[in-house]
Amino acid sequence: MEFKILPPLKSLGQNFLRNPATARRIVEQIPLTPDRPVVELGAGQGAITFLLAEKAATVLALEIDTGLAAQLQEKVRLSGRNNIQVLHEDLLKIDWRTWFDLLGGPFFLVGNLPYNISTPVLFKIIDHREIVESAYVMLQKEVADRLSGKPGQKTYGLLAVLIGYYAEVKPLLTLGPGSFFPKPKVASTFVQIRPRDQLNPPLESQEVFQWTVRSAFGQRRKQLKNALTADGRFPLELIREALEVNQVDPQSRGETLTIAQLVRLANTLNKV
């Protein structure tokens, strides 16, 4: 049966994989087994959905586009596969824990993410790390580079710290613009995001940690003592004291601190 080709919607940032061989290369990067369920974010035309279903126990294929969701549902029906369930949902609005209930446990997350929602999805992955066994997502290469940034590098910032503390990030595959339709202006990188078994050093307050990181990187040119007092949450004397306790130069800048240093600084501030 021939299916009508639905045009990508610019409003949803849709970019579809063009080549079946590329789709297979992507799926080969994922250590799927017959006992592992998968949630696919943005199934689109189903380029990797059926490939995932060949190796996984179950695939929940999430798609926000009404036309694409209906078309994919019909493709699943015609295929005779009984381990694919199409969900017409907005991945930013649905409660991800419903997938845990549907699948009966933790799951792999796989997705070719629209560039315009990649950052909020990354944070949702971290927020749900107790139910996401591992995530495999396609990102704009620039975003993927920022996830792997190290102190002192231009790519080191908010994403590198807030994602890097909670998870290990590993680039798996880089694809040029020609791998997608419509063709984006930049390359894309397929990455693994695996939640850490243990957080080191331990964190006393997630809220204070996130505040510390956002403040430290909010204005990169500001000295740390000024960046951390900008919103008035803590007086300068307490900030100076916390920096001294952690042997951090108050005139240094946030991008020079390691993740561990930022965690210890946040833990000190939490005790104030």
Structure in words:
The chain is an alpha/beta fold and 272 residues long. The chain folds into two domains: 10-195, Rossmann fold, CATH 3.40.50.150; 206-270, Helicase, Ruva Protein, domain 3, CATH 1.10.8. Helices cover 37% and strands 18% of the residues. It has eleven helices and nine strands. The strands form two sheets. Strands 4-3-2-5-6-9-7 form a seven-stranded mixed beta sheet, with helices on both faces. Strand 2 (38-41), helix 2 (49-55) and strand 3 (59-62) form a beta-alpha-beta unit. It starts with 15 loop residues before the first strand and ends with a helix. The model is unreliable at 8-14 (pLDDT under 50).
Short description:
The protein is 37% helix and 18% strand.
List keywords for this structure.
272 residues, Rossmann fold, Helicase, Ruva Protein, domain 3, 2 domains, seven-stranded mixed sheet, two-stranded antiparallel ribbon
Number of strands: 9
The CATH architecture name of the largest domain reads: 3-Layer(aba) Sandwich
Q: Which structural category fits the helices and strands? A: alpha/beta
**CATH class group of the largest domain:** Alpha Beta
